[in-house]
């Protein structure tokens, strides 16, 4: 069995389990004003439902073609699961209260199985897409400026939502809490979320979740990791976000010698 089939089977096992966490928020049933984290949790649940919907569509496509392969419908649940798992990994790096690999003692055997299966899915996703995701360089098919504006908006909202959903984990302590305040750490934590999102998504998939609706990918010249790393770092330049308004290429594209193209 090749890695693509293993990846697909792991995805089918892991994603439906997220239905367990779907519920009607208390602030809706009790007619209360939600907190920022409550809204972020609701958005996360909506993303989960969309992921499961795409998973069902993908399974239908596999049954229809009678071949076990990763059809385009599987990309969204794969990407969402990947970034959720990776963000949790980042949280465990900065928190003394959580571990990415060592589970708490009171978990059921089934829950432990799902979590470790998800860890294997994360590793399999990295290996498969880094090895197989390739984009043909086509300068005639660069993604239009309007599409890139929507891509920026979608990715920015996703990053902000996951940050708002998770920053409370550090209220019980974080590494370096003897040296910096929680307020300063939250700012640093957001920057880590921001840059790691773009680097990990683009170095592995050559696209972010925001690029999915437009079938947009990052094409590069030279070494893949170095090109995406430079691209990610140059995103920190002041006014980079509006630098593509006068040109299809933003500063982080131009300085890293990369291009965002839309495949037909």
From TrEMBL:
Instruction: Enumerate the UniProt keywords alphabetically.
Output: Membrane, Transmembrane, Transmembrane helix
Give the organism the record lists. Flammeovirga pacifica
Under what name is this protein listed?
RDD domain-containing protein
TM segments? Answer: 7-28, 43-63, 83-104, 110-130, 146-164, 184-206
